[in-house]
């Protein structure tokens, strides 16, 4: 008997065979075990059992009794190409006996803490399971794509196929194809949904001769105890009908489920059904059975007879049915909109929440996924959209049906069950991963349970729904209050590396911020923190924190969830609007369970000491406080949610006998809205102290049209208006983003915005402090001060106080006779010097000083006048005196300006030296108090209120499109793989395409659109937030990665390229609601790692860049060399050899033509092009590797090309006349 004994098979091979000698065999398996076979013990609770429905494999032993300990089990999955690929393997460590002539079942769910459970799951898309003993293959079974309620195994004839499951019993007949399964019954006539009056439910089945059995109590239909369908079922009350068809020994059908829902008294008195309905159906035994019911509460007896008090929710948790927290039960979920069922799907349900588990109605997780079948992994809606209006195109494997968490206790007056959904809805205009929200009416087995919130899950399913990454591609982490940060999927290795770096380095050191940004999406993290700080969520930092990352060197992003404590849930100090959330989030104040350990606060605590982080945080926080979190905006979001939920809230209150209580009358609503009014002022104050902000100035920003957006100091204001504050004396830069169909015209600037700081106490200076003086024009604009030291704020020293209060302490050396003169320089930029009326100075000094502007002295104070350069000295001692003065009509330059100060002692024995400068610019204004600024980038250093209105005007769309006409789709690579060295910034070998700028002006791609679908040109918007990355210089290139991962950066497109079904790549602009193609590149199916594009950027000559040697006549130039992909560079031959005519195919240009002369050749400068008669000639000049250098039109009989502008070497000319294309080789010497 032949045996396979290659040990390599265990390590990852999927080469399988069947062992036929006596012994243990694989007889049956069931990956989609949603309700067939529960892992449970006897009549008493057994902690070694999971009490769930895991996937399983049945073994049969036709030999002597044997233990499985030491056996190896290997699992291969079927990939998208239908081939087996290794997935997992494990060694059985438990002493699991398989008796003679007996069966044994092993469970596959990754939960190895339970008896007979293996550390991986079975793939439902098809695969194989193999059993090894001592490295030799004992048996294997390969199976196809699976569905619920059927298994795969071998029958008595050794035929392998689909069958009705028989765990631990003899198998029935096997059928090779799943299509041989009995057809699923259908409803005929009356469909499920909202009904009235008496209805007749009719059923049919397309499998002739099949018998239909049904139930009306939520249980699964079975032949042994369900009703046989013989005719219409009359219904006059809410009923869940479930039906299944059977025929002989064929695999029974899928289960049909439909809820026929009648209006209940609660909704009748409250205006009817006004929100979608979620109907959950299941067997009653799964709800409150003493042994396996997953909805038992503490007040109810479990099987072991224990009763627990209700007062302490934490004491209740984990004591009711012990394993209840991890139980999943089979259910059917229906989604009913406008009375019609738009989704029905089998799923698993489990209880969610902490203390909220104790509420009368528990929160549920509803999960589809691979467990319910290869083709049923996602909840599918008939209208093709998701249930969430703000995320309509997402596809979901799971949902969270939430009872409101801490705010969901119906017996607590004032608690608002939808407050978490409301708070998270505020983040829609932020760069934050939040849970979408929809108010729903919840029914369980036809009984109304109340208002609930339908939410996204915050696990790996969230990442797949929002980013398209599957669970084996991501790490998902969460905080465990007792342990730390733990993985719910993947590992914590990346996070651990981040924390190690954060804690092991000085936050103020060079590169600290940039290195942290490699680990985490800093923009998202900052927005996430700003939101949590605003709402004062004190059930957070060490609790209710989740994050995820793409395992391919991806950056961590945080997910908002469970914000119930926010907006002042409880009246005590920990939730009030005046709580200092910044010191709370660093563990410096208000100690409680969520901030009482260093690991909980370490990340924010270290980052806040980094200047770049602090500046970014403050800027983004000010933007959101003046837009996202204004009272009017918060109130408008609440009003929308309240309007939708109001009638359902009424029915909910009726259900719990809180008659007459409307949502608007709830005290909790007033408390939330009052919180929204009060919170901003406290957050401004706390942020000012925490980040050492000098102060604020009022800032108002508006637009004359709707839809405009702005960049404020480089961060997006996702609104057409702003009302709040900006930092006084800090650079304020505002850039407009015109709405569709408009272009920016000018700024209208209010009079009281006329003063702006150019230099403040926080401005950077360079200084020189030695006994000798610096050489040269040290105060001039072009002086090189790179060797000088850096300083800012109050600079100098005071010996008597150890320089306390100085921002920059200057070293005066060990000599008691100190340097008398200190030299200072600070640069600042001015956009429009003519608009500056005057400069006002406030100088703190000790002892005397001279001020220079762009090398010219403009003011001196307390200085001896008779001394020359290098001999300057103060007139008398001045102990931190203050001088204020103004300079009218200063001589400023457009762009860079330099303010220089010579600070002098009156004696080298002086014990102190001080300089601090504030310089304010006053701009000219018109008589009406406003001025116009036409600069597209408004910039100032504000000292007072700033009020801006952006003025836009209608634009000519054709001119907009024409402005981008120089942009060309130049090269595309739809099959880039790991064998190339072409990788993105994460080291990933994604497909790519390239855009070329054929024009003479720098263009910015921001705001344009990319697509792989000619019918959906607006598929991927090029980010507006990274203008430096999206600029494209004349004759320059920008490469985009087609990886469907825009979260990775501005040069990543929101689609992938198909090489199997090639289409094209398209660049488009949008104006007046119309998308217009700027450029396109349609490609054909290409070999691996081959690109396709225009050779030498010539729009008429497309070619495949294969990486192989070629000889070709391109653009009139005969070349040979290697053609290879050239992302970000000219599409030329990689190692071209010039003028190898004998290697080239038939040429399209003649080497000689009558009537055209090119002379002198060789030439040192002027090259003459002469024709026998006046004819228009287009002359193109190429270098030795085929790069186009010059195009010139000649209309006279003789024209000239100046070759002196080029280096010595060989050049090629292409001469195009109306009759001919002529090639010439020219030598420049």
What does this structure look like?
The chain is mainly beta. The protein folds into 7 domains: 8-180, Immunoglobulin-like (Sandwich), CATH 2.60.40; 186-262, Sandwich (Immunoglobulin-like), CATH 2.60.40; 492-646 and 666-693; 697-754 and 929-954, Sandwich (Immunoglobulin-like); 758-923, Sandwich (Jelly Rolls), CATH 2.60.120.260; 957-1109, no CATH class; 1149-1229, Macroglobulin (MG2) domain (Immunoglobulin-like), CATH 2.60.40. 13% of the residues lie in helices and 35% in strands. It has 16 helices and 74 strands. Strands 21-22-23-24-25-27-26 form a 7-stranded mixed barrel. The protein has a 6-stranded mixed beta sheet with strand order 8-7-2-1-11-12, with no helix packed on it. Strands 38, 41, 42, 44, 47 and 49 form a 6-stranded mixed beta sheet that branches. Strand 28 (474-480) and strand 29 form a beta hairpin. Helix 7 (493-504) runs antiparallel to helix 8 (512-519). It starts with 7 loop residues before the first helix and ends with a strand. The model is unreliable at 1-11, 301-312, 314-322, 1113-1117 and 1135-1152 (pLDDT under 50).
Main attributes of the structure:
13% helix; 1229 residues; mainly beta; globular; 7 domains; 16 helices; Immunoglobulin-like
Summarize the topology.
Blueprint: H1 8-11, E1 24-30, E2 55-61, E3 66-67, E4 72-78, E5 84-91, E6 97-98, E7 102-108, E8 117-118, E9 127-133, E10 136-143, E11 151-154, E12 160-163, E13 186-189, E14 193-195, E15 199-204, E16 211-215, E17 227-228, E18 233-235, E19 239-246, E20 256-262, H2 265-268, E21 277-281, H3 285-288, H4 313-316, E22 329-337, E23 340-352, E24 363-367, E25 398-402, H5 419-425, E26 437-444, E27 447-455, H6 460-467, E28 474-480, E29 484-489, H7 493-504, H8 512-519, H9 522-535, E30 546-550, E31 557-559, H10 581-585, H11 598-607, H12 611-625, H13 631-655, H14 667-690, E32 696-703, E33 709-712, E34 715-717, E35 722-727, E36 732-737, E37 742-750, E38 755-759, E39 764-768, E40 789-792, E41 795-798, E42 808-809, E43 821-830, E44 836-846, E45 848-853, E46 856-861, E47 881-888, E48 895-904, E49 912-923, E50 930-933, E51 938-940, E52 946-954, H15 957-962, E53 967-973, E54 991-997, E55 1003-1004, E56 1009-1011, E57 1020-1021, H16 1027-1030, E58 1031-1032, E59 1037-1042, E60 1052-1053, E61 1064-1071, E62 1074-1082, E63 1091-1094, E64 1102-1105, ...
Helix pairs in contact: 7-8, 9-12
């Amino acid at each position: 008997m032949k045996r396979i004994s290659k040990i390599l098979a265990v390590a990852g091979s999927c080469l399988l065979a069947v062992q036929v000698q006596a012994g243990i065999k694989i007889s049956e398996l069931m990956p989609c075990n949603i309700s067939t076979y529960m892992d449970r013990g006897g009549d008493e609770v057994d902690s070694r059992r999971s009490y769930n429905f895991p996937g399983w494999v049945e073994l049969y032993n036709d030999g002597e009794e044997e233990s499985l300990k030491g056996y190896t089990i290997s699992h291969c999955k079927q990939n998208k190409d239908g081939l087996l690929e290794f997935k997992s393997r494990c060694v059985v460590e438990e002493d699991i006996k398989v008796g003679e002539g007996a069966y044994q079942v092993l469970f596959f769910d990754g939960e190895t803490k339970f008896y007979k459970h293996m550390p991986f799951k079975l793939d439902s898309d098809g695969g194989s399971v193999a059993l090894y003993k001592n490295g030799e293959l004992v048996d294997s079974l390969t199976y196809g794509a699976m569905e619920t309620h059927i298994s795969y195994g071998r029958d008595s004839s050794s035929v392998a196929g689909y069958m009705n499951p028989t765990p631990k019993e003899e198998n029935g007949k096997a059928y090779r194809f799943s299509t041989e399964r009995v057809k699923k019954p259908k409803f005929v006539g009356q469909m499920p949904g909202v009904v009235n009056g008496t209805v007749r439910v009719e059923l049919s089945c397309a499998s002739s001769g099949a018998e239909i059995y049904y139930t009306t109590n939520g249980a699964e239909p079975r032949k042994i105890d369900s009703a046989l369908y013989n005719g219409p079922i009359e219904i006059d009350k809410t009923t869940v009908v479930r039906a299944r068809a059977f025929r002989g020994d064929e695999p029974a059908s899928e289960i049909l489920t439909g809820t026929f829902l009648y209006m209940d008294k609660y909704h009748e008195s409250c205006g009817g059904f006004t929100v979608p309905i979620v109907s959950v159906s299941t067997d009653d035994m799964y709800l409150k059975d003493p042994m396996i019911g997953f909805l038992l509460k503490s007040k109810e007896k479990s099987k072991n007879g224990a009763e627990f008090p209700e007062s302490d929710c934490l004491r209740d948790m984990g004591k009711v049915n012990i394993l209840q927290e991890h139980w999943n039960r089979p259910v059917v979920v229906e989604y009913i909109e406008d009375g019609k069922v738009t989704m029905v799907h089998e799923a698993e349900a489990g209880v969610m929440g902490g203390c909220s588990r104790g509420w009368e109605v528990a929160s549920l997780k509803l999960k589809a996924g691979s467990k319910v079948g290869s083709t049923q992994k996602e909840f599918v809606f008939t209208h093709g959209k998701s249930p969430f209006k703000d995320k309509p195109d997402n596809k979901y494997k799971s949902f969270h049906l939430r009872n409101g968490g801490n705010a969901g206790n119906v017996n607590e007056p004032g608690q608002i069950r939808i407050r978490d959904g409301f708070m998270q809805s505020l983040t829609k205009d932020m760069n934050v991963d939040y849970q979408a929200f929809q108010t729903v009416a919840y029914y369980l087995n036809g009984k109304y349970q109340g208002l609930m919130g339908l939410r996204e899950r915050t696990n790996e399913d969230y990442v797949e729904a929002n980013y398209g990454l599957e669970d084996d591609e991501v790490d998902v982490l969460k905080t465990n209050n007792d342990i730390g940060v733990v993985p719910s999927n993947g590992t914590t290795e990346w996070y651990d590396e981040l924390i190690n770096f954060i804690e092991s380095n000085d936050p103020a050191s060079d590169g600290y911020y940039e290195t942290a940004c490699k680990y985490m999406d800093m923009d998202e993290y900052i927005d996430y923190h700003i939101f949590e700080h605003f709402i004062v969520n004190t059930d957070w930092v060490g609790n209710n924190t989740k994050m995820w990352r793409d395992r391919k060197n991806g950056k961590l992003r945080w997910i908002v969830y469970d914000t119930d404590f926010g907006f002042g849930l409880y009246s005590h100090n920990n939730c009030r609007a005046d709580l200092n959330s910044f010191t709370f989030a660093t563990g410096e104040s208000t100690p409680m369970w969520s901030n009482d350990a260093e690991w909980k606060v370490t990340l924010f605590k270290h980052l806040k000491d980094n200047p770049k982080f602090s500046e970014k945080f403050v800027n983004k926080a000010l933007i959101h406080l003046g837009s996202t979190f204004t009272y009017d905006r918060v109130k408008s979001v609440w009003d929308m949610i309240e309007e939708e939920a109001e009638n359902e809230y009424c029915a909910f209150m009726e259900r719990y006998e809180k008659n007459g209580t409307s949502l608007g009358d709830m005290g909790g609503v007033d408390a939330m809205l009052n919180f929204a009014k009060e919170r901003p002022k406290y957050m401004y104050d706390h942020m000012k102290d925490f980040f050492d902000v000098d102060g604020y100035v009022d800032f108002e920003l508006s637009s004359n049209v709707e839809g405009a957006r702005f960049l404020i100091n480089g961060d997006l204001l996702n609104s057409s208006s702003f009302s709040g504050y900006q930092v006084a004396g800090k650079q304020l830069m505002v850039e407009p983003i015109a709405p569709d169909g408009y272009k920016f015209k000018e700024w209208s600037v209010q009079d009281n915005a006329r003063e702006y700081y150019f230099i403040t106490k926080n401005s950077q200076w360079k200084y020189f402090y030695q006994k000798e003086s610096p050489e040269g024009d040290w105060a001039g604009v072009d002086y090189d001060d790179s060797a000088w030291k850096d300083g800012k704020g109050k600079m100098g020293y005071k010996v008597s106080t150890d320089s306390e209060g100085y921002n920059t302490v200057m070293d005066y050396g060990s000599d008691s006779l100190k340097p008398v003169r200190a030299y200072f320089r600070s640069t600042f930029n001015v956009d429009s010097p003519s608009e500056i009326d005057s400069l006002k100075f406030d100088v703190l000094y000790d002892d005397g000083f001279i001020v220079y502007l762009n090398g010219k002295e403009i003011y001196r104070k307390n200085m001896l006048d008779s001394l020359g350069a290098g001999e300057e000295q103060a007139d008398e001692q001045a102990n931190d005196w203050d001088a204020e003065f103004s300079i009218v009509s200063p001589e400023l330059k457009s762009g860079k300006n330099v303010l220089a100060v010579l600070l002098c002692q009156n004696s080298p024995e002086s014990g102190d030296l001080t300089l601090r400068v504030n310089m304010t610019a006053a701009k000219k204004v018109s008589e009406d108090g406003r001025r116009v600024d036409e600069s597209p980038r408004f910039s100032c250093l504000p000292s007072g209120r700033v009020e801006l209105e952006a003025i836009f005007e209608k634009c000519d769309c054709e001119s907009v499109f024409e402005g981008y006409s120089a942009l060309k789709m130049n090269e595309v690579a739809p099959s880039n793989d790991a064998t190339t060295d072409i990788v993105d910034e994460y080291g990933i070998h994604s497909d790519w395409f390239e855009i070329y700028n054929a024009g003479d002006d720098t263009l910015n791609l921001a705001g344009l659109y990319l697509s792989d679908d000619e019918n959906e040109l607006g598929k991927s918007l090029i980010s507006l937030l990274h203008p430096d990355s999206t600029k494209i210089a004349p004759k320059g290139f920008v490469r985009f990665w087609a990886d469907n991962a825009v979260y990775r950066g501005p040069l990543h497109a929101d689609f992938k390229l198909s090489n199997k079904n090639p289409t094209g790549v398209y660049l488009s602009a949008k104006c007046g609601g119309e998308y217009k193609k700027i450029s396109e590149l349609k490609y054909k199916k290409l070999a691996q790692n081959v690109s396709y594009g225009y050779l030498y950027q010539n729009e008429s000559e497309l070619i495949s860049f294969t990486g192989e040697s070629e000889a070709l006549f391109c653009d009139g130039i005969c070349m040979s060399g290697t053609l290879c992909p050239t992302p970000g560079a000219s599409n030329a031959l990689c190692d071209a050899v010039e003028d190898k005519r004998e290697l080239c195919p038939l040429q399209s240009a003649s080497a000689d033509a009558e009537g055209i002369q090119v002379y002198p050749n060789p030439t040192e400068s002027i090259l003459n092009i002469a024709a026998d008669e006046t004819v228009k000639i287009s002359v193109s000049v190429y270098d030795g590797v085929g790069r186009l250098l010059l195009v010139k039109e000649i209309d006279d009989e003789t024209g000239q090309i100046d070759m002196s502008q080029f280096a010595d070497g060989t050049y090629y000319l292409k001469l195009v006349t109306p009759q001919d294309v002529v090639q010439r080789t020219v030598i420049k010497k």
